[in-house]
Amino acid sequence: MTQSVQDMATAARHAARRLAVTSTAQRNAALEAMAMALEARQEEILGANTLDVAEAQQAVSQGRMGQPLLKRLSLAGDKCAEMGRMVTSVAAQPDPLNVTQSATELSTALELYRVTVPIGVIGVIFESRPDALVQIAALGLKSGNAVLLKGGREAARTNQVLGQVIVDATTGSDGIPSGWLGLLASREDVGVLLGMDQDVDLIIPRGSNEFVRHILDNTRIPVMGHADGICHVYVDRSAQIGMATHIIVDAKTQYVAVCNAAETLLVHQDVAPALLARVVPELRSRGVVLRGDARARSLAPAAMDAATEADWHTEYLDLILAVKVVDDLDQAINHINEYGSHHTDTIVTEDRQAAEAFLRGVDSASVMHNASTRFADGFRYGLGAEVGISTSRLHSRGPVGLEGLTSYKYVLRGSGQCVGDFEGEQYRPYTHRPLRKTWTA
Amino acid sequence: MTQSVQDMATAARHAARRLAVTSTAQRNAALEAMAMALEARQEEILGANTLDVAEAQQAVSQGRMGQPLLKRLSLAGDKCAEMGRMVTSVAAQPDPLNVTQSATELSTALELYRVTVPIGVIGVIFESRPDALVQIAALGLKSGNAVLLKGGREAARTNQVLGQVIVDATTGSDGIPSGWLGLLASREDVGVLLGMDQDVDLIIPRGSNEFVRHILDNTRIPVMGHADGICHVYVDRSAQIGMATHIIVDAKTQYVAVCNAAETLLVHQDVAPALLARVVPELRSRGVVLRGDARARSLAPAAMDAATEADWHTEYLDLILAVKVVDDLDQAINHINEYGSHHTDTIVTEDRQAAEAFLRGVDSASVMHNASTRFADGFRYGLGAEVGISTSRLHSRGPVGLEGLTSYKYVLRGSGQCVGDFEGEQYRPYTHRPLRKTWTA
Question: Domains, chain A, ranges and CATH?
Fold first, then answer.
């Protein structure tokens, strides 16, 4: 049975309206059913996954696919049980819906509440990892959103079965409407999805830099995510050299292929000789290739290639680090605002005032003092499950948890009031008194 | 001196970064200077305005412009002083910046804060009212945003002088960078602005339905606003007829040309005879033209034209009301979700359960029980100055105050921590303990 993307989106919109009025218990019960089904139907899932993996292995042996992609594709081992546990952990999160954000008395017996609600219909487009499908389905359901999913072609069979398992398990569950989850089949489907700005409220792309950029360039629907992660470590004049070295090594090498890894090191000129003497051998011993500006190279000529303008703009996602010596804090801040991607940047300094100037002046989603950029992550930030990291300045910014999948509505409870009663001859002032009450439906 | 839009936007981006680090006192002082200058340079402003008004009067007499537009254009009388008072009242609002939204201990001496910051560069495009220029400049400055403004052609001279007065008054003020306010001159400039998604973070269109729709259709920059305001009053089976009549009359007639006025009346079939008998004469005596579906007309045949499908989609902004009799609450909710514009809708009922189902089930920015839709407004909601009303589900929804002009950043204060310290053999759990602290720079 194939459904057109348009039909799927219409079904998703209707489902979203019904999901929006489900109770916490109903959504959690459906999540538990999803978790159980992932374990119960493990053989079916692994059967499909084995076929995908076999095909991918061929592609790898023919040089059409990289080894890391193959690794992410496989659900062998404990992965099914792990997905089940992940769904259970999403169920255990606090309900992001029906949270009263503010309550105000406008006048006697006229009370205004601002309450969280789902966004509606969310399109998620992700590359190969099939566990991303399960994660986003779980987060979507928890937050009352309908989801339209398109996974990588390499994982098509696995995704098909996972989608069916989730649909079977949840749409039997009390209150959960059919159509809340739709699986897109082809690249053409994605093109159609990106054009449906009336029916889809948000697009979340998960994948490479080029992939996200392609999505951003091809839709008018709001996109939550980030293209580049060009993160900086700035070592200020009064930094502790040992601490700075520890942070640089962690930010660059602890996990290189991620958006919160450092790509550029900025060093205050006064501390550059001491810092580079210490950190350069540490980095080189870990296989890091350094590309320095003229001043940095003059301090460690044998250890650095020459950086070009392009290096300051580049997200390597690899064991490469660009290094620049700056005159002062201001030059560092300006460099980051100019060349960075507004993702995550850190200063290492013992000077509290310099730290505050950096934290305020750097226009990024996460700004840090004496900590590694690698902390910029939903789990580490305590947000529970992570939807992604956003570099947008609207809606959610930085690591996004379930809250980022919600909107709000204003609920006004009156007792017959009209605006005319408050104006002209009838003038009555509004009280605008904060209420310590929550809205409960 | 004319500046290209690109130069203006570059200047605005640089100014925005400097505005972001100004203190509350600096921004308020600049607002006070702005307020004083508006009074002090009143003659200059009125001189320009008189010329605009004279030209507009010609246009009106030749039938090229409507009388209401002319009225909105004029700053005669107390308008300059009024604009000054408005700016002073914006200065008096609480600072929306540097508000700590959350604080979490991730581990010992590793503290995470989520803090409000400006959005950055905001483009505002508005039709004739020149006081809109002053209002948005004041709100932008208060919230630390740079603004690029384009007003209506009819008010070109007035806007030019107002812009100059504001720039002169504020850029002399301590900490306020030049370039924070730019005035666009032509329709071509707007085209350029709408294409600058790297330099402009948000577009706010203020004007007619068609105007907003044109903006939405011609930019990839996020837009805050609403096109239609198709608001509904639903009178449930157990409504008090007197209260319902009062609310319908207010929602329809108290001020017809606004987005929160009611356009469609839905009536439960059981209460339709009694309700229509009471409300139809009331509405007709106020000049309201009624367009009913078959069932409504059968109850008041002489008083109603026949409604067509198009009526349920139409924002009249006029003394016209579409009327439909529905079978039950569910049909009312479905009609609103299908034909409405997700702006503001109200139910009149004595049945608490029906009210809750309506408040939860209707997918609109404002949902109300026993109150007029006309309350949906930033001032009435107690938000202070209003930026506009948004029907988007992302970022701000409903009436938007200064908070809607802010974003946030995460600030992490550490003492040398690295992610590697928390993983593998070094395993240390995150504490994720809420802190009762605020971040102060």
Answer: 5-99+117-217 (3.40.605.10), 231-375 (3.40.309.10)
